[in-house]
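Annotated sample (chain length 203).
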Amino acid sequence: AGTVRQEATTFAAYVATALDGLLRTRIAGFTARAMRVGLGSSAVALLALYLFVGFYLSVSRPIRRIVDTLGAVAHGDLARRVRVETRDEVGFVARALNDTIAITEAAAERLSNQATSDSLTGLPNRAYVLGRLGEALDRCAGGDGLMCVIFVDLDGFKVINDTLGHEAGDDVLCAISARLTAIKRKTDTVARLAGDEFVVICE
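Output written by the structure step:
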């Protein structure tokens, strides 16, 4: 019984030592694996943060410029353009926006010219000259110089239209507008009121 007890104790001590070593080896392996996983996760997190910050910085500035330009255009500044040097989707949007602003600016200028100029002669029209006349009268009322308004009405113009046709009448109107423009001073305003009526404002 004593020998068996001694052998059992020795065996138990051996098994305990072996198990302890095996457990320590396993724990060390798990610890190393956990450290590798932790380092990998940290590296992935740092890479993701780097990519996010890089993406944010590369996209946020151009988008801010686009938003600022849209705000300026909304307030009537059609001379504003977006400056984006990238060749990606943001650059495509910026170029499309610039093209749209340029088209809008050209259309606005065309409409402004149509609203204030005569389509046949190219002279200022009635709406423009009435505004200019009001400004000139205000300046004179304030004691800021003198002015003269010359009203020109063509006699016998209806006969030209009736006998030679409207194209000939248009040629006469263009010739009259060219002659009036040639003799006016830089400070004078020549305009076509309507039909065969012209006005010259001399300040």
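Annotation: The chain has a mean pLDDT of 84.
Annotation: Helices lie at 2-74, 89-116, 126-141, 157-164, 166-183.
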